[in-house]
Amino acid sequence: MDMHKKSLGVQEWGIRALYSQCLLSANAESNKISLASSGHDGGPGMDVIHRAMETAKFDVVTIELACRLYWCLSSSEDIAKTLSTSTDPIYGIMNAVHLYRKRPEAAAMTEAAYGALANLARITDKNHGSLRDSGVITAAMESIGAFHYDEELYVEACALLSNMAQNPANKEEILNFDAVSIISRLMHHYSHNATLQEEALNALLSLSADSVRAKMSMISESTFGSVIRLLEDRKSPTTMQELSCSLLCSLSVQKEGADLAVSQGAVQAVLTVMKTSSGERRVQEAASMTLRNFACQRAGIEQLLAIDAVQTLVGTMQGISESETVQLNSCCILWNLVENSKKEPTTIADAGGIEQVVRAMQAHMESGEVLEMACGALWSLIDCSEDRKKSMVGSGAIDAVTCALVMHPNEPHTLEKACGLLANICTQSMMAEAIADSQGISMVVEAMRNNSSSLSLLELGTLVLRNLVLVNPEYALEASNGISTIINAMKDNPEAVEFQTEACNALWALAAQSEDCKSKIVALDGVQILMNALENNHPSEVQDAARGAINQLARSGGGGL
Fold it and tell me: Where would one find coiled-coil regions in this protein (predicted)?
């Protein structure tokens, strides 16, 4: 082929031979590697394919085989990278696409061309630029309309668009062609073709990523209908279930998307997938993320609170316990369900939700996000229920929470939720004792000291210390290590009303329960700080708390509040 560049016959049969050796031979893989590695010594290599396409450009059969050879070679990522060192393959293929545009006899060639280009589009941004400059997006969109009922071509066109959409500039150009509507119609009209459905879903997912414009154009009854139908089909492969859930998840980031999806039956469809694919981790992760977005958008709350739904969710947490994603999403869902419903969370408690959230903490102690969501969920679940508090403590939650304080000393959001949970339960002697026994007091003090810029954490940590010393004066000595942090924070944040209230109340409680604490507050200029709180025109709750603390400090001897 290299010696007879002008011979149409040599080029044609050379391409046929290479195609046969790289695709049909028993040694196809080694032959592909040999072809890819040739030419490094200055001799002929894969460049003979490009030259053959130039010589035989009016022979559609040879051009098709050349495109299929590129398609075959580029299916290997390493070989695709080698091909990407030159723009010749891209422009050679696109010259053929432009030459045979809309010609019925070139449908198979166009399919092979898009298959090869889709593989090359996976490799580098450099390829994206070359492909965009070659007009591939326009060609692909026109081909979908020009080649009627050619499902194989549609598959490769969707794959090409999916890979091209990874680049923001490409994505905008694709969207300008109304690609979302076109791809959605393909899904609707060719519901029997699983491969086309998968590539169409991939294309929509790529387009929706980081694009509100794309998401809003996909939020339609037609798109959701196709996706939910795939979820409801028991024969759908797990890859299809994962992609369908992922697309629902992406679109439900928008409130409009979550509401429409739920109205179309998405909650039940996703729950069904969670049941039927209980052992499929990737499916469960995508499904739980979808339900998380629904719950965060306050969509489908009542459906998700149904006994069957809660049992499915808790069962998934138990069955895929090793997945941080599943545990994180599930804790977030439970938290949102409690916060956004007026009902008591009895269905969650009865399904073992409290115990499972504690297990999630114990299994993923290294994840600050899981611990934050878990503490938030437990905080909501146990609020105003002594029985649920006892259930939580009996599951080992206190040790898990104090471990969270140790494991994540510089993550204020995690620490804030942990302190909030402790503040909710530490007004009872049994639970206060459990917190003290697990070194919780010193851990709270340390968290406050290390995160003095987080007012929410300081407020909740201060509330924990106050509640503990009121339950048992013996805890005052250990809690007194937080006095300097409280006073310094009061000095630095004079306008923070909620914190000032809790700080004044905590100093009042500490002074009332311990002479040593009283002396420490006075020594740290606490009286002046409390006087400042009185003089700052704060609301009555701050005034009352500051006045109480000052009066307590003025007393001689011990005494209660």
Answer: none
